Fold:
Amino acid sequence: MKVIKDEELLVTELQLTNFRPKNNLTSTNYPGIAFDCGCGERHTVNDPTLRIISIALPVKFLFECRNKHITFVHMKGFFKIKANCLWTCEGKLYYKTIKDLESNE
Structure:
């Protein structure tokens, strides 16, 4: 898992991915599948306390956990599904970066 602590690196990661607004793709389709979060805890993908911020294809979720960490998770596999954490950052860094990007547009 890549831990992002720099706004420039986060911008690069965000630009590499074609994020989309949430839609009917939900994490409830993956009961019991867990991932290691940047907050240090292990969360199940269908945990109701996780907030889906955005999605990307194929089957990637940008989650915010109750501990205010943002984690980008890729669901892999067909018969044996696994959640792979691609990167994580603190929520404070994520929201500051998003605000800065929006103000520059």
Q: What stands out?
A: The chain has two helices and seven strands. Helices lie at 7-16, 91-104. The chain has one domain: 2-104. The two ends are 30 Å apart (CA to CA).
